[in-house]
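Sanity check

After download, print the first record. It should look like this:
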Amino acid sequence: MRGLFPTKHIDGQGRCLGGIILGSEKFIQDHVHNLLRQTGPAMSPFNAWVLLKGLETLSVRVERQTATAGKLADQLAAHPKITRLIYPGRADHPQAATIKKQMRGGSNLIAFEIAGGKPAAFRFLNALRLVRMTNNLGDAKSLITHPATTTHQRLTPEARAELGISDGMVRLSVGLEHPGDIAADLVAALEKA
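Expected structure tokens:
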């Protein structure tokens, strides 16, 4: 495994960003070491304190968000306007066996594809009232994004397709709101998709 894993999720309130860089010694030497030396990235003491305070409630938040996400994933998978759903806590996930060995639960993230492509996805997103649209995820509030026009918009359509990101796909980061309230908002918005 290698890559940069920044997150607002540790704090839980979306107040600051922090993360780690994971990789082999060769990856770190070849790709990260010079960047760190030349740019000198360092977290401010205040942001470090906020992240440490967030760690105090991380396990409770993740347990609640994961439980809610699992229920929502099952509901969404059964909806006629959802053509594809990706959730690591479901048996139909392509890597379900590995996930079961490595994780105690699913995740607070759900990706799903809405029939009708980008126009339908945008109608859905615009109809949401509780879940907020954003281009980054990880908060106590439920947030949703449209990867094809935000996080992955610089990729060619072919590259997005290779990654499984269609114009109808959205990514939902489940927050701490009441599960029934989130479900009601999603279902009502899907009716307008």
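If your output differs, re-run the checksum step. Summary of this record's structure: The chain has a mean pLDDT of 88.
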